[in-house]
Amino acid sequence: MTTTEPGTATAPVPGTPDGPPLLDVRDLTMTFPGRRSATGRRGAAVKAVDGVSFSLSAGETLGLVGESGCGKSTTGRMLVRLLEPTSGSIAFEGRDISRLSQGQLRPLRKHLQMVFQDPHSSLNPRQTVARIISEPLLVQGWSADDARRRAAELMDLVGLIPEHIDRYPHEFSGGQAQRIGIARSLATNPRLVVADEPVSALDVSVQAQIVNLMERLRRELGLAYVFIAHDLSVVKRVSDRVAVMYLGRIVEIGDKHTLYADPQHPYTRALLSAVPLPDPAAERRRERITLLGDPPSPAAPPPGCTFHPRCAKAQEVCRTERPLLRIASPGETREVACHFPGD
Q1: DSSP 236-278
Q2: Which residues pair with 253 in a beta bridge?
Q3: 34 phi/psi in degrees, rounded to 5
Q4: In order along the chain (343 residues), what is the average pLDDT of each group of 10 residues?
Q5: The pTM is what?
Q6: Distance of alpha carbon 14 from alpha carbon 20, whole angstroms
Q7: How many Cα neighbours within 13 Å face the side chain of 85?
Q8: How far apart are CA 136 and CA 38, in angstroms?
């Protein structure tokens, strides 16, 4: 089998923002059964993801942000079918993949790849880098020689020395190990890469290198990313659009420039108020928004708007009626789930 030269995908990519989406997610839900106690009694079910909907164009990056436990990583794993959705649909290139069997899904796996948070724990310590990167190709039917050559090409593409192909993961630093994980995700020339907190386990200086690498690969290879993170400054750097999640739901989604400059949801404003500003004077002048209490348990979410127990603007309708995502104001595409958006 002939290998594909990396970095040569320069042809126009279909599915531009004006065309059909590469990925279309509708009402995606994930419910985990409650744990059994020592007496054998099962606890309440946990709805980790509750009706998430969004679309993604080819070559676009969607940032998915929120507090720990908001459901963003669970959403990412469902997109590549590492978790089976409880309900909802995931359409990839117009085909619903949410109910495909593993056999039906196998030909599509090469187009859907994932980069994990902890680079070392996601790499098999008993396998060489050559085996780690080439394994997706071997599963797809490549010969061992062609897969090894492709692995060496990918190591060079992500900034690693191809001569180190027979080393083991423990011989690499955290940043280098994450480059190996990125190389593995690119082995089959995917269209979509879900990056789940890809830089949160790395030093700040290494984070910048990995972010710049992923940006370059997106431009050169025409990739689409779902970039999951809790660091809003990193998300702003890499994303075209940003979706903010709270307790399993998207509460605001839109173009990053509009969302960062004028957040409409109180939760989005609180998150952005915690992002450090480069200007010390501006940092001293701005108001820091402190949320009340802790996020409610997804096993027992509050009625109405799930954010209302922590929201200073909450009124009676917020406690009884769940707000739906809707256009924030005429003339823009940003959507917000709030009864009283804006200031």
Answers
A1: HHH-SEEEEEETTEEEEEEEHHHHHHS--SHHHHHHHHTSPPS
A2: 243, 335
A3: -65, 155
A4: 37 45 96 80 86 95 93 96 95 94 90 91 94 92 94 95 94 94 95 94 88 94 95 91 96 94 93 77 70 83 93 92 89 90 80
A5: 0.87
A6: 8
A7: 26
A8: 41
